[in-house]
Design a protein that fits this description.
Helix content: 55-70%
Number of helices: 4
Largest sheet: none
Number of strands: 0
Amino acid sequence: MDSTALKHIQQKINEEIAKTKVAILNYKELTKPIAPENAIGRISRMDAINNKSVNEAAFKKAELKLNNLTIALSNVNDPDFGICYKCKNQIPLGRILLMPHTRFCVSCAR
Protein backbone atom coordinates (compact mmCIF):
# COMPACT_ATOMS: atom_id res chain seq x y z
CA MET A 1 0.00 0.00 0.00
CA ASP A 2 1.41 3.39 -0.94
CA SER A 3 2.00 6.27 1.48
CA THR A 4 -0.84 8.39 0.08
CA ALA A 5 -3.36 5.63 0.76
CA LEU A 6 -1.95 5.11 4.25
CA LYS A 7 -2.25 8.83 5.05
CA HIS A 8 -5.83 8.79 3.78
CA ILE A 9 -6.58 5.77 5.97
CA GLN A 10 -4.97 7.43 9.02
CA GLN A 11 -7.10 10.52 8.43
CA LYS A 12 -10.24 8.40 8.13
CA ILE A 13 -9.41 6.49 11.32
CA ASN A 14 -8.82 9.75 13.22
CA GLU A 15 -12.18 11.08 11.98
CA GLU A 16 -13.92 7.88 13.09
CA ILE A 17 -12.22 8.03 16.48
CA ALA A 18 -13.49 11.59 16.98
CA LYS A 19 -17.05 10.61 15.95
CA THR A 20 -17.00 7.55 18.18
CA LYS A 21 -15.80 9.56 21.19
CA VAL A 22 -18.72 11.97 20.71
CA ALA A 23 -21.13 9.03 20.42
CA ILE A 24 -19.73 7.49 23.61
CA LEU A 25 -20.29 10.75 25.49
CA ASN A 26 -23.89 10.85 24.23
CA TYR A 27 -24.48 7.22 25.22
CA LYS A 28 -23.05 7.87 28.69
CA GLU A 29 -25.64 10.59 29.12
CA LEU A 30 -28.45 8.34 27.85
CA THR A 31 -27.49 5.41 30.10
CA LYS A 32 -27.66 7.23 33.40
CA PRO A 33 -29.87 5.52 36.00
CA ILE A 34 -33.56 6.33 35.89
CA ALA A 35 -34.60 7.87 39.17
CA PRO A 36 -37.60 6.11 40.73
CA GLU A 37 -39.01 9.39 42.03
CA ASN A 38 -39.61 10.68 38.50
CA ALA A 39 -43.30 11.40 38.09
CA ILE A 40 -43.83 9.35 34.96
CA GLY A 41 -46.41 6.67 34.42
CA ARG A 42 -45.69 2.96 34.77
CA ILE A 43 -45.71 2.36 31.01
CA SER A 44 -43.52 5.40 30.37
CA ARG A 45 -41.08 4.21 33.02
CA MET A 46 -40.93 0.73 31.44
CA ASP A 47 -40.29 2.36 28.06
CA ALA A 48 -37.51 4.50 29.58
CA ILE A 49 -35.90 1.38 31.11
CA ASN A 50 -36.11 -0.42 27.76
CA ASN A 51 -34.53 2.55 25.96
CA LYS A 52 -31.78 2.62 28.57
CA SER A 53 -30.89 -1.02 27.88
CA VAL A 54 -30.81 -0.37 24.12
CA ASN A 55 -28.51 2.60 24.70
CA GLU A 56 -26.27 0.52 26.98
CA ALA A 57 -25.81 -2.03 24.19
CA ALA A 58 -24.98 0.77 21.73
CA PHE A 59 -22.57 2.23 24.29
CA LYS A 60 -20.70 -1.07 24.62
CA LYS A 61 -20.55 -1.43 20.84
CA ALA A 62 -19.16 2.11 20.49
CA GLU A 63 -16.51 1.39 23.13
CA LEU A 64 -15.47 -1.74 21.25
CA LYS A 65 -15.31 0.21 18.00
CA LEU A 66 -13.13 2.89 19.63
CA ASN A 67 -10.79 0.21 20.93
CA ASN A 68 -10.57 -1.42 17.48
CA LEU A 69 -9.97 1.95 15.79
CA THR A 70 -7.17 2.76 18.23
CA ILE A 71 -5.55 -0.59 17.50
CA ALA A 72 -5.97 -0.05 13.74
CA LEU A 73 -4.36 3.40 14.00
CA SER A 74 -1.37 1.96 15.82
CA ASN A 75 -1.04 -0.78 13.16
CA VAL A 76 -1.31 1.42 10.04
CA ASN A 77 2.43 1.49 9.49
CA ASP A 78 2.87 -2.26 9.94
CA PRO A 79 3.89 -4.04 6.73
CA ASP A 80 0.94 -6.43 6.94
CA PHE A 81 -1.70 -3.72 7.50
CA GLY A 82 -4.50 -4.20 4.98
CA ILE A 83 -3.76 -7.90 4.59
CA CYS A 84 -6.56 -10.31 5.55
CA TYR A 85 -5.60 -12.35 8.63
CA LYS A 86 -7.31 -15.43 7.27
CA CYS A 87 -6.60 -15.69 3.52
CA LYS A 88 -3.57 -13.32 3.42
CA ASN A 89 -4.99 -11.41 0.40
CA GLN A 90 -5.09 -7.61 0.17
CA ILE A 91 -8.21 -6.09 1.75
CA PRO A 92 -9.78 -3.65 -0.76
CA LEU A 93 -9.10 0.01 0.01
CA GLY A 94 -12.83 0.78 -0.03
CA ARG A 95 -13.45 -1.74 2.76
CA ILE A 96 -10.59 -0.33 4.82
CA LEU A 97 -11.97 3.19 4.40
CA LEU A 98 -15.47 2.09 5.45
CA MET A 99 -14.27 -0.16 8.26
CA PRO A 100 -10.70 0.81 9.15
CA HIS A 101 -10.70 -1.54 12.13
CA THR A 102 -11.45 -4.63 10.02
CA ARG A 103 -8.87 -7.39 9.85
CA PHE A 104 -10.65 -9.57 7.30
CA CYS A 105 -11.67 -9.25 3.66
CA VAL A 106 -15.37 -9.52 2.80
CA SER A 107 -15.16 -13.21 1.94
CA CYS A 108 -13.43 -14.21 5.15
CA ALA A 109 -15.61 -11.98 7.35
CA ARG A 110 -18.72 -14.03 6.52
